[in-house]
């Protein structure tokens, strides 16, 4: 809840911190694959647009990370775009027994890929073409 989150942010342990880091590629997480087959006993292969998995970098979407010691939330936002951008789509997940591949198809637009909404507001104002 929002009230509980606001109270926790008052505590020094839960203060937000901003860390800037460089990157060579952006890791994109796919939604989980469906568990069940359709009525024709064939697997349903879902499709997802590139911009929906890029929503991780809009600066407001929070992603929860869990380690054996702690849990924490992260938000990502791009502060500049490199000349070349590589997307690494995370298709493989590891569980206790084996590695599983997510067959989701990513619909990638060939032209007019605009990453303006994933940049910070200051950078959007400075650069007309993204």
UniProtKB/TrEMBL annotation:
Chemical reaction(s) catalysed: Thiol-dependent hydrolysis of ester, thioester, amide, peptide and isopeptide bonds formed by the C-terminal Gly of ubiquitin (a 76-residue protein attached to proteins as an intracellular targeting signal)
GO biological process, one term: protein deubiquitination
GO molecular function, one term: cysteine-type deubiquitinase activity
Enzyme class, broadest EC rank: hydrolase
Key word rRNA-binding present: no
Keywords (A to Z) from UniProt: Hydrolase
Coiled coil: none
E.C. code: 3.4.19.12
UniProt-recorded name of the protein: ubiquitinyl hydrolase 1
Record's keyword annotation contains Hydrolase: yes
Record InterPro entries: Papain-like_cys_pep_sf, Peptidase_C19_UCH, Ub_carboxyl-term_hydrolase
Residue ranges constituting the Peptidase C19 ubiquitin carboxyl-terminal hydrolase domain according to the UniProt record: 57-127
